[in-house]
Amino acid sequence: MYQTLLTDLQDGIFTITINRPDKLNALNKDVIADLGKALNEVYNNAEIKTAIITGAGEKSFVAGADISEFTSLDANGGSTLAKQGQDNVFDKIENCPKPVVAAVNGFSLGGGCELAMACHFRLASENAKFGQPEVNLGLIPGYGGTQRLTQLIGKGKAMELMMTADMIGADEAKALGLVNYVVPQAELLSKTKEILQKIQTKAPLAITKVISCVNDAAKGEKDGFLNEIKRFGECFATEDMKEGTGAFLEKRKAIFKGK
Ligand code: COA
What we know:
Layout: E1 5-10, E2 13-18, H1 29-44, E3 50-55, E4 60-62, H2 75-94, E5 100-104, E6 107-109, H3 111-118, E7 121-125, E8 129-131, H4 145-153, H5 155-164, E9 168-169, H6 170-176, E10 181-183, H7 188-200, H8 204-219, H9 224-235, H10 239-249
Parallel strand pairs: 2-3, 3-5, 4-6, 5-7, 6-8, 7-10
Antiparallel strand pairs: 1-2, 8-9
Helix pairs in contact: 1-2, 3-4, 4-5, 8-9
Residues 23-24, 26, 63-68, 107, 109-111, 133-134, 136-137, 139 line the site of coenzyme A.
């Protein structure tokens, strides 16, 4: 079904593996199209509760947009590439009602760093390297990097990384808040799945509302507090809220249905 991705659905966790290891999993048009389709699957398949995005091999998560596809583009072509990518993949990940987490298994550069940052949070293997090296190519990030890197690590450090094109290692990425955990490569997927399994025991509709409200805060939406009030209220109309509060009062474990 996918030319450039491997997918696997187990215990509600949909693992999407970008599979162009000979090109360090660079994002060409086919990968972007396949990722768009895979995200539609995440949105629409009720058996998928959470998703992981990772890269094939042990060297690279994604080493950027495919530079070989840039040579034929003019100004319109460049902005169309960025807009379509943002609409069909990057923003779709950020706004996904189900948790999408990046398991960063190596180079996470340019569009790769942007892909990881569009995810709701990130884990990295010890060999992971992050950077936005676009200025080396006479470019700037086009898949949301100028915005999301600034949201995640703050203006000064984001400016420095995007101006110098420097790469940082996994430990520095963790210190900056870009990734939540650094683990040995062999444990990357198991640790990611362990966290997602825990999330899957919680009330799914509430998780969706957390994503919406936290995204508002990260984007500096002025109505984030209003969104929280509205979503908080909506929780009271769900069966899961009655189950969760009832289970607490009855001293038993809640079983959520996503209703
Ligand atoms: N686009 C297209 N092809 C890419 C690529 C990209 N972003 N990143 C790596 N590749 C290809 C290389 O061209 C090479 O292909 P080839 O074997 O057909 O020559 C293959 O992937 C392996 O990469 P290579 O550069 O030989 O590996 P390395 O270990 O020497 O260096 C990197 C690794 C990540 C430092 C280096 O590949 C690199 O700088 N990539 C570009 C990063 C970048 O600028 N990304 C932002 C794009 S906007």
